[in-house]
Amino acid sequence: MINFNSEFTKGFVKAEDVEHFLELGPKYLKALKEQTGLGSDFLGWVDLPNRISEHEISEIERVAKGLQKFQTIVVVGIGGSYLGSKAVIDLFTPYFEHSQTEILFAGQNLDEDYINQLIQYLSGRNFAVIVISKSGTTLEPAVGFRLLLNLIVENYGENAIKNRVVAITDAQKGALRSVVEQYGLESFVVPDDVGGRYSVLTAVGLLPIAVAGIDIRALLNGAKNGEAKYTIESKENMAIQYAAFRNALYQKGYNNEIMVYSKPKWNAMAEWWKQLYGESEGKENKGIFPVSINITTDLHSLGQYVQEGERKLMETFIRFANPETKTQVPNDNNNYDQLNYLTGKSFHFINAQAETGTMQAHNEGGVPVMQIMLEELNILILGELIYFYEIACGISGYMLGVNPFDQPGVEAYKKNMFKLLGK
Ligand code: PA5
Questions:
Q1: From atom 5 of ligand 1, which residue's Cα is the shortest distance away?
Q2: Which range marks the domain in which residue 349 is found?
Q3: Dihedral sign, CA of 220, 222, 228, 234?
Q4: Is residue 385 part of a domain?
Q5: Alpha carbon of 261 to ligand 1 centroid (Å)
Q6: Model pTM?
Q7: What is the H or E stretch that residue 292 is in?
Q8: What is the CA(382)–ligand 1 centre distance, in A?
Q9: What amino acid positions are annotated as catalytic residues?
Q10: Are residues 310 and 205 in the same domain?
Q11: Strands 127-133 and 165-169
Q12: pLDDT digit string, tens, across residues 267-300
């Protein structure tokens, strides 16, 4: 179960301002469901949890099983082509060990050291590649993939490409589709009507997640629960509430939203959320800037700003109800650090008090706070949360008056870069 709490926005925004957006919410949700709003060509994700076929799921599981025999899988992709799978994989794999199949990511930067060291590292390992690009033309994954393809040929010969590369791309167009055809690769399709940042519940996200040994059926079942709950055209719908509160706050000048969480494992999830909201809403000189803070780590870096900097911040705290482990603070007879008052207390308890204390301090310091409470951190609830964030993003973008499904601004840097590179 997921709950949304807006109590700590009181005093920052008037009830009637929120009500205005709550009234609009069901209308915008209907437009998403009936594909009558802006960007309606890219709404294939709205009913995806229920629409994805048993055949597609079984195929993903079959290919994932085949890839699990390799020591290392390199997922090549950028933006929506890797952030979702990384988020889920980081959350459901241990901090300090990887499963039998190690998953690495490439093609999401152009740092020479990164790619160089990756190539060195892979030289001693039995590896395969999942290359993901909807357009098939994005520079970062394309050049990364070139190098990895060369490495496969060098290490294992050209015939090995067929068994060591799986591609996820457009059904017909793009360079990657040509590679699929040339080498007879296993491949999956990114549906035309699903944009990159909304694609985690297609093969784009599901294949790497399945390779990591995570139950994709449970993830999809969670998303189905999300679809059932968050497509109800009512002001009680939490996705409408989240969208309404953040837009009402935005209108009052709170134009940055900080996602606050107390688990380092959530870092990649925050990156996924930032892309989803930043790329969907930041256009036409409008939009809430999405940022994230990991507590307590970032309280020793950004905490000062949040507490006393410019008062344009709103926060959404992610609350995790159940601890994963119960590690307790040991007693120390010397008590040099004067911390024996914590003896026997679990880290979860201490972390929860740090989180509550932070929330109170920020709220009293002038930051409106929303909370998203997760009954438990499991794959089913994460699937529901992914759907919650996606649908809330569509509604929120419509409230803001932008098309949440395009990204015209991403082209600007490419234009300059290509010119400088002599394309
Ligand atoms: O959300 C988006 O559409 C983008 O972030 C894309 O996912 C990203 O630019 C990568 O594009 P492609 O999959 O075409 O390589």
A1: 79
A2: 2-39+231-400
A3: negative
A4: yes
A5: 26
A6: 0.97
A7: strand 289-294
A8: 22
A9: 279, 300, 414
A10: no
A11: parallel
A12: 999 999 999 999 999 999 999 999 999 999 999 9
